[in-house]
């Protein structure tokens, strides 16, 4: 990693710590890997990463911590943000023993088993670099563990498999040649798939494969031609996207994130709802959550007119109330477990 890939505290605008403790024996442990939390962050633009790190620090310092809790933070664009740094005790690992013996590196990703932010090659490379630095400059021992190895937590989510497979061991080969596991979203590769003329690109194959997995009849040949365009148009229509036959960022992402709906007969009653996200959508005040977009998108597919913008406001509440009345649910304007479930399982009438 070149120096320009390390973002110092001054560069990201850190607040000064309230207190610094050097009470750490990392040689008796090593490095614990974390992620930010249970909701996907969906950061595509690196310009947003510094402000996220500042907000993490503010949350920690406004709570019980002397500083941002982590030693370093890594973003999916391959940058490392300096947290407490070398030789400083962390507050992130959950127990006194774990904070005695482990540094903490945190990925700026999140999610749960149903939706994880994509784990990019740049992110895994940045974490490997952090581990190497904490060993050579910070005296860390050989262990690389997940937060959940130290205390009861789901952290670090999707990254735990990488911890277990040794992916964060410095010096292991970078992993671009490894295809992502089937069904795992990969970030939009930046090429618009369109026709005519035929777009030939590896990402056309990835998209075709994913559409096939969703149940569309489409060849997987890496050439985006007439048939691919027709599938794209039908998909965009079904999902309430801009219907232009071009796979751009929004249509690409929807191929992984939009709920799979039934074929043309419109009977979706056999579909399973995605797990309820555990957050009540209420208004007022606004509820902002990635799962709001999932619900709004689903309601659009059912024929309701509302924006899928991830913000549960007055229009979403109106739709919710009307839907609850129509389906004989408690009409309280709140999307809780029963209303969430019915958005997938109640018959479209
Ligand atoms: Zn953690
Ligand atoms: Zn970034």
TrEMBL record:
Signal peptide: none annotated. One of its GO terms (molecular function) is N-acetylmuramoyl-L-alanine amidase activity. Transmembrane segments: none annotated. SUPFAM superfamilies: N-acetylmuramoyl-L-alanine amidase-like (SSF55846), PGBD-like (SSF47090). Residues 4-151 form the Peptidoglycan recognition protein family domain. InterPro entries: Amidase/PGRP_sf, Amidase_domain, Peptidoglycan-bd-like, PGBD-like_sf, PGBDSf, PGRP, PGRP_domain_met/bac. Belongs to the N-acetylmuramoyl-L-alanine amidase 2 family. This is Peptidoglycan recognition protein family domain-containing protein. It comes from Streptomyces ruber.
């Amino acid at each position: 990693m070149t120096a320009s890939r390390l973002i110092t505290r001054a560069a990201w605008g850190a607040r000064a710590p309230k207190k610094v403790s050097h009470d750490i024996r990392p040689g008796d442990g090593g490095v614990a890997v974390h992620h930010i939390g249970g909701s996907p962050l969906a950061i595509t633009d690196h310009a947003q990463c510094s402000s996220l790190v500042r907000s993490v620090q503010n949350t920690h310092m406004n709570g019980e911590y002397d500083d941002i809790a982590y030693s370093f933070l890594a973003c999916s664009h391959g940058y490392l943000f300096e947290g407490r740094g070398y030789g400083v005790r962390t507050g992130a690992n959950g127990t006194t023993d774990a904070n005695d013996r482990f540094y903490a590196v945190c990925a700026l990703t999140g999610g749960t088993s149903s939706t994880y932010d994509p784990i990019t090659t740049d992110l895994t490379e940045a974490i490997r670099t952090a581990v190497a630095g904490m060993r050579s400059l910070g005296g860390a021992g050989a262990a690389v563990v997940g937060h959940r190895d130290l205390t009861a937590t789901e952290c670090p989510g999707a990254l735990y498999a990488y911890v277990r497979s040794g992916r964060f061991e410095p010096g292991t080969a970078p992993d671009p040649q490894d295809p992502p596991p089937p069904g795992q979203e990969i970030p939009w590769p930046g090429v618009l798939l369109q026709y005519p003329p035929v777009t030939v690109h590896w990402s056309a194959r990835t998209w075709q494969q994913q559409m096939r997995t969703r149940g569309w009849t489409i060849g997987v040949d890496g050439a985006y031609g007439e048939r691919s365009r027709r599938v794209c148009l039908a998909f965009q229509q079904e999902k309430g996207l801009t219907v232009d036959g071009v796979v751009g960022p929004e249509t690409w992402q929807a191929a992984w994130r939009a709920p799979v709906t039934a074929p043309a007969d419109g009977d979706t009653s056999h579909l399973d709802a995605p797990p309820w996200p555990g957050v009540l959508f209420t208004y007022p005040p606004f509820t902002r959550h990635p799962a709001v977009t999932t619900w709004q998108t689903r309601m659009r597919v059912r024929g309701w007119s509302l924006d899928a913008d991830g913000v549960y406001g007055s229009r979403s509440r109106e739709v919710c109330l009307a839907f609850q009345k129509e389906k004989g649910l408690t009409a309280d304007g709140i999307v809780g477990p029963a209303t969430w479930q019915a958005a997938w399982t109640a018959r479209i009438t």
